[in-house]
Amino acid sequence: MIQQIYPSAAHPFRYELNKDMQFAAAHYVPSESAGACSRVHGHTYFVNVTVAGDELDESGFLVNFSQIKKLIHNRFDHSLLNDHSALFSDEDPNRYPTTENVARIIAELVSDFLAQTVNKPQCVQIFLRETPTSYVIYRPYAAGGNRHE
Ligand SMILES: Nc1nc2c(c(=O)[nH]1)N=C([C@H](O)[C@H](O)COP(=O)(O)OP(=O)(O)OP(=O)(O)O)CN2
Ligand SMILES: [Zn+2]
């Protein structure tokens, strides 16, 4: 489906898994300075989720690829991102559905899911492409290992 080499995330783990997926969604950026983006419009978002860890689960997986897809694709596909009121808000620029914020929120959703697994791998990078010419990379951990939340 998607065949692209992504910038790599630095991490100390033995295993690294990458899951590509896409979802179709509409959004608007509720800011006058966003120009045309303040009007409702749609994208086919391309996502690459990077998960890393040292331990595998009872299936020999870091995490099941399909679980990662279900978590993100099933939630956002064919939706208006702004309608996800638990995640996005018109009142807070850090909760507008910009590429930056969507990438961070995907990282948070994946991290929350992984924290509940037995082997507890970590989400180390989200690559989110909004248009053929625009993408954002979000890395939950700084180079020194500090997580930004
Ligand atoms: N830093 C950000 N800038 C912009 C965002 C964003 O999320 N973060 N979003 C938009 C718009 O939503 C738009 O969908 C994407 O903008 P843009 O890349 O300009 O889209 P084009 O397809 O028109 O790009 P061209 O390369 O000019 O064809 C805007 N900015
Ligand atoms: Zn847009």
From TrEMBL:
Lyase as UniProt keyword: yes
Keyword flag Cell division: no
Pfam families: PTPS
Domain of life: Bacteria
InterPro entries: 6-PTP_synth/QueD (IPR007115), 6-PTP_synth/QueD_sf (IPR038418)
Keywords of the record: Lyase, Metal-binding, Queuosine biosynthesis, Zinc
UniProt-annotated catalytic positions: 37, 78, 130
Coiled-coil region: none
GO MF terms held by the record: 6-carboxytetrahydropterin synthase activity; metal ion binding
Signal sequence range: none
Reactions performed catalytically: 7,8-dihydroneopterin 3'-triphosphate + H2O = 6-carboxy-5,6,7,8-tetrahydropterin + triphosphate + acetaldehyde + 2 H(+)
Entry binding sites for Zn(2+): 27, 41, 43
Cofactor: Zn(2+)
Enzyme Commission number(s): 4.-.-.-
Comment on bound cofactor: Binds 1 zinc ion per subunit.
One of the protein's GO biological processes: tRNA queuosine(34) biosynthetic process
Pathway membership: Purine metabolism; 7-cyano-7-deazaguanine biosynthesis
NCBIfam families named among the record's database cross-references: queuosine_QueD
Similarity section: Belongs to the PTPS family. QueD subfamily.
Protein name stated in the entry: 6-carboxy-5,6,7,8-tetrahydropterin synthase
Organism of derivation: Paenibacillus baekrokdamisoli
Lineage of the organism: Bacteria, Bacillati, Bacillota, Bacilli, Bacillales
Gene from which the chain derives: queD
